[in-house]
Amino acid sequence: MTPPLPSRRGLIFGGAAVSAGALLTSCTSNESNEKGPAQAGGGAADDKPGKAVTVGFAGPQADHGWLNAINEQARARAKEYEDVTLEITEGSNDTAQQIGQIETLINKKVDVLVILPADGKALTQIGLKAMRAGIPVVNLDRVFDSQQAYRCWIGGDNYGMGLNAGRFIGERLKDKKNAKVVELAGIDNLELTRQRTEGFDDALKNYPNIKKVARQAAEFTVESGQAKMAQLLQAQSSFDALWNHDDDQGVGAERAIKQAGRDEFFMVGGAGSKHAMDAIKADNSVLKATVLYPPTMAASAIDLARALGQGKGVGGLAEHEIPASLTLYSAVVTKDNVDEYLPTGFS
């Protein structure tokens, strides 16, 4: 059986913009660090040079704004360390090709591997192979099917995304009689989509006046967002709120909404793109909030990989070792706090 995802059992870090580096800072140094150009959560964990570490980084193809931001965060964080050399693959959504890229990194005998698998279950064996070869693996976001395939998992909280979106919508509509909400989900065969829906539905259980009247699954693309949102609008003559799982597909949803001339509802997005945050700040559209799924986790993964390669622990914790899992918090960005989170927004 597949073990429960760390997002439901891991350590919860408060504040999406805070990287694991915030805890790692006190491993060997008490000095403060300046922010790097691409990092919103602070500078490198400890900029005092130590043992040289070669980190191999393998992720899926950067064909989505969030995935592109993941690559940028990893590269920018590695550049902040004099003692880190980053070996990064081109990335692929093809399982066999990504496995081949990771095998190349294993053969190069990198010190630590950071892997964001296109499919966690399908790439579990390559994670196991690296661990058996004595290369610690930092499993980023999409979890492997076995805890033996990684030394540390770090990622977002998909259930928490849906839960916090539902709570935000619930509080806004708690005094409205017979309120209606709709959901524009992501790819339905992904576990993360099911978790986001589950969290959303669980939150709405606390608001008996609110009913989810429709749900459509899109594909995390602008085109699919526009097409599926158009279908929702056609099927539902009126509703009060929309929970959209992904800000990239949300761009398409916004287009469909504008074309239909609808504005009787408010929209909550997901992930935390710069486009979404700019719209929230402008406050001139239906988009009023977005729930973060921070790509800063990639910078934190580099921090953790460096610490593993240098045999460090995590400062601020009693344990001598880096935890087995770290789950980032899904903060809700609104007009009231958008300035705080704007630096984390990705294109």
UniProtKB/TrEMBL annotation:
<feature type="domain" description="Periplasmic binding protein">
    <location>
        <begin position="55"/>
        <end position="312"/>
    </location>
</feature>
<dbReference type="InterPro" id="IPR028082">
    <property type="entry name" value="Peripla_BP_I"/>
</dbReference>
<keyword id="KW-0732">Signal</keyword>
<comment type="similarity">
    <text>Belongs to the bacterial solute-binding protein 2 family.</text>
</comment>
<dbReference type="InterPro" id="IPR025997">
    <property type="entry name" value="SBP_2_dom"/>
</dbReference>
<protein>
    <submittedName>
        <fullName>ABC transporter substrate-binding protein</fullName>
    </submittedName>
</protein>
<dbReference type="InterPro" id="IPR006311">
    <property type="entry name" value="TAT_signal"/>
</dbReference>
<dbReference type="Pfam" id="PF13407">
    <property type="entry name" value="Peripla_BP_4"/>
</dbReference>
